[in-house]
Description:
This protein is 42% helix and 2% strand. It contains 19 helices and four strands. Strands 1-3 form a two-stranded antiparallel sheet. A two-stranded antiparallel sheet has the order 2-4. Helix 5 runs antiparallel to helix 6.
Amino acid sequence: MKKIIYIGLMVAGTLTFSACSDYLDVNTNPNGPDSLLQPELFLPQIQSEMAVAVQWDGRFAGFYTQNWAYTSGSSYSLNLHSNPLSDTYAQLWRAVYFSMGYNLSDMIESGINNKKYDFVGVGYIMRAYGWQMLTDYHGPVIVTEAFNSDQRVFNYDEQPVVYEEIKRLLLLGIENLDRTDGLSPSDSGLIQADLIYAGNRDKWKKFAYGLLAINAHRLTNKSSYNADEVIGYVDQAFTGNQDDASIGFDGTVSADTNFFGPLRDNIGYYRQTKFMMGLLDGTNPELTDPSLIGADPLPENATEHLKDPRITAMMAPSPDGQYRGISPELGINEWSAAEASLVPKNFWNQVGYKGSTPSPQIYFFNNAARFPLMTYAQLQFIKSEAAFISNKKDVALTAYQEGVKSHMDFAKQYAPDPALFESRKTAYLNSTELFPVATEELTLSKIMLQKYIATWGWGMLETWSDMRRYHYDIDAADPVYKGFELPDPLYISNNGNPAYRARPRYNSEYMWNKDALEVIGAYEEDYHTYETWFSKPE
């Protein structure tokens, strides 16, 4: 792992020279400045790299969870990561160890030296977020020996070590954000540098508590799991959609554009799945209400189930105006050339595989759209699940209701017809099948399927972690993810098992860190199916 610092870019944008010799006078080190740069010069790049990495690798986790499928069908399903000779699925690895890496360490050190403790707090939280996303995706990762410039090979840490380090960093982050002896955000430069919260310390602390909740809630299969602790963390986190963590993009050129936008052209071959569509059109067995057949306000849907109001905000229509999903096994091949009007458009509201600025915009799939990193709805569903499995059904019901309503409010901003959205929302929330008002009507499946909807398209790593906690409902008498089906058969290297982890990055690990890979079994052909520690019952 090499120390990569984008000195040229940052210096070019921040220094003014009176003469060439003046610049040379400040450096005795020919490879870069002797002193640390100010922390505000690190943070925007760090945040952007982290967000793009979550989107990059989340694309592939989204195949596992059937958020979307590839148009050609089974070549992209739950069979990924079987080939280690690729960096295609390892952007998070690169972001955490390279793009953030020493830069984040230097930002924290510079913040301490310059009494910019808000940067220190944000730095610790960003590092914890990186570790959480990375270990959720890869399982064992390198933490205790990371960023040691005296080493050339690095041993892996199992997840118990990583999880404890995440918690330690988050508490350190909160501690530094609570400090009053340093510069204020307006004086430190955090307001200008922070692309997520514009320097708001309180929201960063809420984000940290949200991540503590995520970290603790992963362990539902452990005897040490503490539902009250999870609920307590959520209660100290977001209080509404106004606290949601998201990152913005200018959307003018590829380098400053949303990774999912048409200018980047990364998801043109992706389409929503039948599973996701079933959650929104009333055909999923858990999210259906027979009394709502014929209740949809659109005349053309007079004989159909009420559509979830979020369907028009989140999903891409077909050219004929109807909403459909594709099968991960078949892709768009289930329709003939003569049935082209039935094929779902891409997420840029275009027929085919390219796009421009969509009108109307579909969800956050646009060049300058903000991309979510954590939401109030997500945390409410975590609280609901924690309360449900600890038999606090009243708490679970209230959190469930909060999660559904808040995500509907979130989605409405993308609705092409707000009046239609509100009409459907009223009917939806009046259904005690879809929106329970009594504790005995609430089910674990409803909680997790509504969470699936709320994290669709951005929280793929969260959803994949949830599905692994429930072991994809394999052999479950009462499935949580009703309507979800694994590909059959799976890829031959899977030996009949679904994926549980992504392989480490090829270009750093398989080329330079081979001995450490041998220890964790990463050369085995089915390594990607080894169960992650957090999902194992103990």
